[in-house]
UniProtKB/TrEMBL annotation:
Protein name: Amylosucrase
GO molecular function, one term: amylosucrase activity
Domain Glycosyl hydrolase family 13 catalytic residue range list: 99-556
SUPFAM superfamilies (UniProt xref): (Trans)glycosidases (SSF51445), Glycosyl hydrolase domain (SSF51011)
Biological process annotations from GO: carbohydrate metabolic process
CDD domains: AmyAc_Amylosucrase
Amino acid sequence: MYEQISHSLLNEILNDIKPEIRNLRLHHFYTRLGANFYAIHSLFHLLYGDRDDFKQQMTHLVETLASRYAERDDELKQSDLDREKNHNWFLSQKWVGMALYCDRFSENLQGLNTKLPYLQELGINMLHIMPILDCPQDNSDGGYAVRNFRKVDTQYGTTDDVVKLASGLRKRDALLVLDIVVNHTSDEHEWAQRAKRGEKKYQDYYYVFDDRELPDIYEETMPEVFPTTAPGNFTWDEEMGKWVMTVFNNYQWDLNYHNPAVLIEMIDIILFWANKGADILRMDAVAFLWKKIGSVCQNEREAHLLLQLMKDCCQVTAPGVLFIAEAIVSPSEISKYFGEDAINAKECEIAYNATLMALLWDAVATRNAALLTQGLKNLPVKLERATWLNYVRCHDDIGLGFDDNDIRLAGYDPTSHRHFVIDYFTGKFPDSPARGLPFGANPKTGDARISGSLASLVGLESALENGDEAAIDAAIKTITLLHSVILSFGGIPLLYYGDAIGTLNSLEYLAEPTKVADNRWMNRSHFDWRKAELRQQPGTVEYQIFSALKKMIALRKETTAFADFDNRQFLTVDNPNLLVYSRTDPQNNRNRVLVISNFNVEPQSLAASILTTYGYFQLGVMKNLCANTQIAIENGALIIPALTTFWLTD
Ligand code: GLC
Ligand code: GLC
């Protein structure tokens, strides 16, 4: 948009810009800056307009964007242009992701190159490498307590290895996802170190207080993230002689975005990694970006303004790079991270679908789809140019982030239902085959989350121990069923590295003093390559899971109706054990897939009359893509076997 004030400011900034920057080849940069400047200026003004150094800060921001643009290599600039032209490229059904730890999956970044054929065999073409930046050895929070944002931890390799990996992936037509830990730094980061030594400039990078007065006021409304291992939101720093805000662990200092210097530093870091070849950046813990007295300090409006600014700035320098919002918050809040009141995503193009994830686990525990269907129907409508990251498990705990009202509508009492689900997965519920542990149990609120690997949570571990063939079969079917939903739902499926071979809980962390208190490590095991070999041996558990997932991934990629163009419709059916939706190719309405998933351990039936009302089974049979078989209506009903999904086409 053209607007006089911002346009004349832009002219002034461009006149003031350092001559060494002005002399660079910045043709596309200027076009994009012109297009985004009104938004950047308005947002920056909303956040920092009352500061005396406002214009200086703006100039510094523009110089940062220009300098990083000048450094961006030609191949990446070409990819930016291609993606601008084909701007819906990431909505295609062709993408299938996996998240893994480079050291736990292979040895290091170089070693990872030799493991790419495994990923390719499964059909993975989007690789999220868990954080690899320099962290203190002991207090790392699995890579999320960064000491140096521009240095790869020496145990994983070098920045150059990242560049090589990115370019190798590009040749395979695969994408690289890297983390940007935007909310906090390690207390050993240079900024924190200088703050400790008393430098006011760097104390302003954090939320630092002389006494408990303000921290106590904040605490009145701030929830706790790690109540058992890191209670409270502030930590006393002996060296500095002050309190500092630490929402996560006490060694993770929250960055103070009330200070524009922090935002500009972080934008610079975002662009640094964009320039190393990352296609997508996973913005960690974005719900926490803005802190305000009297609020929960999550999902604040300003957190959204900051993300919009980061996006607009990235659009100017590296427009081909997408953002993933890691905001594990309530269903109504998550979709706001796409940006509101727009068609194109204004913040993050992709968001973790934590709602679907939690609902899937509810369906496993209840063995029905009542709450799953109810919750999904209320999933907020997302923007057109935005998509979900659909996942079953990740490196973190499972929070039961669904809506109380949906729980009631599904026929349960919210408090007792949540307790049931926690008890089910943590082995307290009689007859439950699950082997999880409670995480972050907070006696003050009664909340708890769940840790454990996918296979152990669905009962594979206990079934193997008991040598119970029927239970082993049910666990394998459940793993396949859960993946069939994330592969067909709409969005990018993100697998977790051990899940395709049925990796059980790992107990290694119990022997490591710095990890023992954090049972999320149960699900961060060293990938067992000998176990992975068994995927080639028919009859093994590994073979059954791996081959089922591999087949569904290949089918997904061929099925254009699975691309994400808001082309999903839920069918209202009379059997609560079933989740039923259709996916239609917007280019060709006749090209559609009916997805029916049975979460019950018994076969279930669905009245043919319902299906024919929606126009399915007109000729009495449909093809099930998953098994390549014809499925017929018999005695007026469709029978769906236990723990099975049908992908039906005409
Ligand atoms: C295709 C490519 C992807 C590229 C995009 C942009 O989907 O596979 O790598 O960035 O198109 O056009
Ligand atoms: C994110 C990460 C989690 C980490 C937290 C703090 O939620 O996924 O592992 O503990 O942020 O950085």
